[in-house]
Amino acid sequence: MALLVFAMIIVGWRLYGRYRESTASLPDSMSVAGNCTLWFVGSSSIHRWTSLDRDMTPWAVENRGINGAMLTDILPRFTNIKAKEGRPRALILYVGENDIANDVPVRTVMRQLASLFDLRDRLLPDVPVLLLSAKPSPGRLGFLGEQRIFNAAAQQFLLHMRAAHYADITTPLFVGGAMGDNYQPDGVHMNARGYRIWAEVVRKRLRDILPPDVTRACAP
Questions:
Q1: Does residue 213 lie within any of the structural domains?
Q2: Structure letter (DSSP) for residue 183
Q3: β-strand pairing of 90-94 with 164-167
Q4: Which structural domain, as residue segments, surrounds residue 119?
Q5: Would 30 be classed as within a structural domain?
Q6: Residue 79 domain-assigned?
Q7: Out of 12, 150, 181, 186, which residue is the most buried by the measure of CB atoms under 10 Å away?
Q8: What is the pTM of this model?
Q9: pLDDT of residue 177
């Protein structure tokens, strides 16, 4: 009898976990007012960008990163985007690094990325997506080759997507062929200097991809 009760508890807990996952939304779903809002969506490298407001001012930003997330974590949450959350002027996306570090094949990551763009087309049609390259990390040097394959595949993929753009955050992180002093002690996440580099790249690419009247109004 005790074993049966225990089994029922385990099954119930798993079903509850699946329900929570199916109804969860992206973090920071409180809509920021105005037409100059950027959504930053991705894994812990976005989630831990605590200076995002300051680094991207005067843009209004929503940090919708999920600590430790892979695409399989982001996709169901993206599915649950509601109309009341509004539409960002652009969506800045950082995905793929954790997937690769967990030995997910690049071809699988690309299929999941395509699914994310399908959701964008359905839920946020014509909202530009700026995909950041998978960054090199001193703590993940063994995955650098796979990251390069992913970055090359992503660039080619984006050429065939509507309102889809690429931002190279990889090159600026190298100084004289070596990774600069841009990382936290864990050797994976960015420090303040690293995030300032990211912000500079994002700002420049937004000027490239958004209409001039938008960037003049939002970030003069």
A1: yes
A2: B
A3: unpaired
A4: 35-218
A5: no
A6: yes
A7: 150
A8: 0.86
A9: 79
